[in-house]
Design a protein that fits this description.
The complex is a heterodimer of chains A (about 90) and B (about 170). With about 90 residues, chain A is mainly α. Helices cover about 60% and strands about 0% of the residues of chain A. In chain A, helix 1 (about 15-30) runs parallel beside helix 3 (about 45-60). Chain B is mainly α and about 170 residues long. Helix content of chain B is about 65%, strand content about 0%. Chain B has helices at about 5-30, 55-70, 75-80, 85-100, 105-120, 125-135, 140-165. In chain B, helix 1 crosses helix 4 and helix 2 runs parallel beside helix 4 (about 85-100). The longest helix of chain B has 23 residues, at about 5-30. Classes of the chains: A mainly alpha (about 90), B mainly alpha (about 170). The interface of A and B includes residues 66 and 77 of A.
Chain lengths: ~90, ~170
């Protein structure tokens, strides 16, 4: 059970809605999932934080010379190392 | 994370994390310093006359493989440190070659994974080791910094997911 309730999409604050749309577009493209994943959903209470993480996510995962698959492998490896079930 | 990687590739990736994490802890525990760093290891490296023939053969294989990987001659101190225990050394070296040098995943990606795990575990020895492997493979500092960006970003998201106890909604 999450510490906070993840908002349904129609409950997301106005300030986060455009961002949610952009994140969903990328998640559909990269992971093939239609819904906003819970990690992003947990940030919708705090749109400025969500935006800061989205910009870092794009900067670290989508830009540069290292192939996206290599980056996803490093990301998964870090998560395993940290025993992060999510 | 699937992106076209099959079950063998996933197992290989987890195996690589398991292997590098184990080596990180041993290198940390043995107080190993990568060549050029100050400090003495916890256990002295074996002298030539303490190394028997099967271990000598293993060390020759280590030198051949690792000099190609790291772009520098010699046997890395990590392997010398294990050489007093032939069976432990041999089984670890075989696992190392299996996971780093064979399989379906790209070799440079594996070195990047090794760096990411070592940074996350705070293991200076293997940070230097995998950094050397990437530099020897032609990676410049900008590219290597991209790996650090991913490590930073995912350590951050791991913290968030754990702190919020967020349930995973991403399934294969």
């Amino acid at each position: 059970m999450s510490t906070i309730r993840i908002l349904d999409e129609d409950e997301v604050p106005e300030a986060a809605r455009e961002l949610v749309k952009r994140i969903k577009t990328r998640e559909k493209r990269v992971f093939g999932i239609d819904a906003l994943s819970n990690i992003w959903g947990s940030m919708t209470y705090y749109p400025e934080y969500m935006k800061a993480n989205w910009e870092r996510s794009r900067a670290t995962m989508q830009r540069g010379d290292v192939p996206p698959l290599t980056k996803e492998m490093v990301a998964s490896a870090v998560s395993v190392t940290n025993s992060c079930e999510y | 994370m699937r992106m076209g990687i099959d079950e063998k590739g996933i197992t290989e990736l987890i195996g690589l994390v398991d292997h590098v994490s184990g080596m990180n802890k041993v290198a940390h525990g043995l107080l190993l310093e990568y060549d050029g760093d100050p400090g003495a290891p916890l256990l002295p490296y074996p002298e030539n006359n303490e190394i028997d023939s099967p271990v000598r053969e293993l060390l020759a294989d280590v030198e051949a493989v690792e000099s190609g990987r790291l772009g520098r001659p010699g046997v890395p101190g990590y392997w010398l440190s294990l050489a007093r225990n032939r069976h432990y050394f041999e089984s670890t070296w075989k696992k190392h070659k299996l996971l780093l040098d064979e399989g379906v995943l790209e070799l440079e990606a594996k070195a990047a994974v090794g760096l990411g795990v070592s940074v996350t575990n705070g293991c200076k020895y293997f940070i230097r080791y995998f950094h050397a492997a990437l530099v020897n493979a032609g990676w410049n500092s900008g590219r290597i910094l991209e790996v650090f960006g991913v490590v930073d970003h995912y350590n951050s998201f791991n913290m968030l997911a754990t702190g919020m106890q967020i349930e995973s909604d991403i399934r294969p």
